[in-house]
Design a protein that fits this description.
Number of helices: 17
Helix content: over 70%
CATH class: Mainly Alpha
Order of helices and strands: HHHHHHHHHHHHHHHHH
Number of domains: 1
Strand content: under 5%
CATH topology: Growth Hormone, Chain: A
CATH architecture: Up-down Bundle
Shape: globular
CATH superfamily: MFS general substrate transporter like domains
């Protein structure tokens, strides 16, 4: 690392705060989106779940194409400008949602947010810039914990603010994002040195071009596929949780907010205190496999839980799987040189976005089919059963591909 230790610690702290505030803004919306979509569409929750799934898919579709572009752009101009622009775009999208008078406006806001939604990927590249290779899994885990902090604060606060009207929540989210832009403008240092930057080329900025470029690094493609499977599994919960809990257990927005707060708290404990320790002791490969299996067990619990208390008891089991993401990210990051970290993080963001394109429409449709009156079998937990099966597939993929964690830690080129 070329930066002094004090620089790295200060910069890391800001990035973690930024991720936490970003997640808080997103989390504020989760308890109120189902009712808002239902009001604007004039249909019930089962139908609103399908609209909600497509809203998420539109955001993901935009981010799928924009992620590698913004990641490559951050390799050229630096992380700071891209991160602050992303936060500003999110703030503007929340303002649009606050004034939305139809579903068309909600979709327009998601397009804007998706096009500039580079905060997580740029934050990941920033952390890779300032972290020693041995610390990356731990620091990526801290980034996940920061996101979990936002999940605690956001949904609980969103559920409380909903009593003043759902529109209030959107403006609160906008205020958080835009305030962070101002804060970051004055205090966020640049992490990518000028001599480590590379020219921007469109041929390697779009998803296919960036992916082809990354194929030069050995072991990248199987790990990216495992990351895609992981994201499909993990995104099943936010895509269906409010609809599932309101339908099966008659939960209120406040109940949904509290449950997601518990989910976020459990996430923080895992990411802050366990991910780094597990990775150091057992290696990234074993930690990733174990995480997939814990996700499988937790989602099976969600699928078959007969009452809300058992559902809550499965949350700590499920979030043990959050150790999988940072370990896969660390394995990927260690294989790529510093000048290509933004491109890598952009492709990883595209994998996440592809999962978000596929998951909400599919899983919300599965929920709708098995929860509508007259369904062939009433089983609203069907999306979680499907996700549990995918988690098992993910564990098998890591087992087959990674013989040991040290073999995947070497950033060698395949030629």
């Amino acid at each position: 690392m070329t930066q002094p230790k004090g620089f790295r610690l200060g910069a890391l702290s800001f990035v973690l705060i930024t991720v936490a505030l970003d997640a808080t803004g997103i989390g504020l919306l989760i308890p109120v989106i189902p009712r808002l979509v239902a009001d604007l569409s004039g249909e019930g929750l089962s139908a609103a779940a399908v609209y909600g799934g497509w809203l998420t898919a539109v955001f993901a579709g935009m981010q799928f194409f924009a992620g590698p572009i913004l990641g490559s752009l951050s390799d050229h101009v630096g992380r700071r400008a891209v991160m602050l622009s992303s936060l500003a775009a999110f703030g503007a999208s929340y303002v649009l949602m606050g004034f939305a008078s139809s579903l068309v406006w909600l979709f327009a806001a998601q397009v804007l947010a998706g096009l500039f939604g580079a905060t997580p990927s740029t934050a990941g590249a920033y952390i890779a810039d300032i972290s020693a290779p041995a610390d990356r899994a731990k620091h990526f885990g801290w980034m996940g914990a920061a996101f979990g902090t936002g999940l605690i604060i956001g949904p609980v606060l969103g559920g409380a603010l909903a009593s003043f009207g759902s529109r209030t929540v959107f403006f609160a989210s906008a205020l958080l994002s835009l305030s962070n832009v101002i804060y970051g403008y004055f205090v966020l240092p640049e992490s990518l040195a000028a001599d480590q930057r590379r020219p921007f080329h469109w041929k390697r900025a779009h998803p296919v071009g960036a992916l082809l470029r990354l194929r030069r690094y050995s072991g990248i493609m199987p790990l990216l596929l495992a990351l895609l499977v992981l994201q499909i599994v993990m995104q099943t919960l936010p895509a269906t949780w409010p609809y599932f809990t309101m339908q099966k257990f008659a939960w209120t927005p406040r109940d949904v907010g509290i449950s997601l707060g518990i989910y976020g708290l459990s996430n923080i404990l895992v990411q802050s205190f366990l991910t780094g320790r597990l990775s150091s002791r057992f290696g990234n490969s074993l930690t990733a496999r174990a995480g997939f299996l814990m996700l499988m067990l937790g989602y099976l619990g969600f699928a078959f839980a007969p009452h809300g208390s058992l559902l809550l008891a499965c949350i700590p089991v499920t979030v043990m799987g959050f150790a999988t993401g940072p370990t896969i990210s660390s394995l990927l990051s260690a294989r790529v040189d510093g000048a290509s970290q933004g491109m890598l993080q952009g492709v990883m963001a595209s994998a996440t976005s592809l999962a978000a394109i596929l998951t909400p429409p599919v899983m919300s449709k599965v929920f709708s089919v098995f929860s509508l009156p007259g369904a062939p079998r009433y089983f609203p937990g069907a999306p979680y059963l499907a996700a549990a099966g995918l988690a098992f597939v993910g564990a098998l993929m890591i087992s087959i591909e990674t013989k040991d964690s040290s073999a995947l830690s070497s950033p060698t080129l395949s030629g």
